[in-house]
Amino acid sequence: PWGIALEGVTVRYPNGTVGLNNVSLDIPPGSMVAIVGLSGSGKSTLIRTINGLVPVSSGVLRVGGATVSAARPGALRALRGEIGMVFQGFNLAGRASVLQNVLVGRLAHTPLWRTLLGAYRPADREIAYEALDSVGILHKLYARASDLSGGQQQRVAIARALAQQPKIVLADEPVASLDPPTAHGVMRDLRRINTERDLTVLVNLHLLDLAREYGVRMIGMRAGEVVYDGPAATATDRD
Ligand code: ADP
Ligand code: ADP
C-alpha cells in the first residue's frame, strides 16, 4: 500500500474559497483513517486533492513515491489509476450488469470487441469475481446494477475500486445515503479490506458514531483545518 503525506497544504479554489488551510498529515501505508467533519469542513477537498483532482495552492503533497503538488497532468492521470474511488452516489452504470460495472476500470486494456461480446479476459474475470466475493455480492454477477439495493450498489462500487488493484482506496461519504444497518455493513467491508489486503483506506464520514466503532484513526476537520487527530474510539463531539 501507499502512504500519504501533507506538509502545510493549502487549497484555494478559483473563486477564493479556502478548501484546506495549512494541513499537515502523515498517513502511513496500510492505515485506515476516518475523516470526520460537518458539511463544508473540507473532507471532500482533502480526498479530491489526494486524488490529484484539485490542485494544491501551496505546501507539499506526497502520495506513494510521487510529489503530487509538483506533478504534471500525465503523472496525475497515472496516479488516479492507482487510487480506487468510492462515492456517496455509487456512480454505477445502472443499465449495465454488476460484472460490467466492476470491469469498467480494467477495460482500458481490453479490445472493444471483447467488451461488446462480454468476452472478458479470464484474468480480468478472476479479479472481478474475487473483488465481488470479498464484499459478499458475487451471486449478483449478472444482475442489473439499478435492480440492486443501495447497500448492494455500494458494494459493487467497492468491488469496482478493488478490481483496479489500487494502492489506496478513497471513499467520499460512502454511507451517507444508506440506512444505519447497511452503513455499518459497508464500513465493516471497508475495514476488512484495509486489514486483509493491507490497503490504505481513507473514508469521509459526517457521523462521529460510525468512525468510533471501527478502531481507526480519526481526523476531525473544521473550516479546512485539522482539529483532531487520534484514535476514533476516544474522540468526543467537543473534539
Ligand atoms: P465537505 O466535504 O466537508 O463537505 P468540501 O471539501 O466539499 O467540504 O468543502 C470545503 C469548502 O470548499 C467549502 O467552503 C466549500 O463550499 C468549498 N468548495 C468545495 N468545492 C468547491 C469548488 N469547486 N469551488 C469553490 N469552492 C468549493
Ligand atoms: P491499524 O494498525 O489498526 O490498522 P493504525 O496503524 O492506522 O491502525 O493506527 C492504530 C491506532 O493509532 C489508531 O487507533 C489510530 O487512531 C492511532 N494513530 C496511528 N497513527 C496516528 C497518527 N499519526 N496520529 C494520530 N493517531 C494515530
TrEMBL record:
Keywords: ATP-binding, Cell membrane, Membrane, Nucleotide-binding, Translocase, Transport. One of its GO terms (molecular function) is ATP binding. Residues 4-239 form the ABC transporter domain. It comes from the Bacteria. One of its GO terms (cellular component) is membrane. The keyword Membrane applies. This is Phosphonate transport system ATP-binding protein. The chain holds residues 22 to 260 of 286 of the full protein.
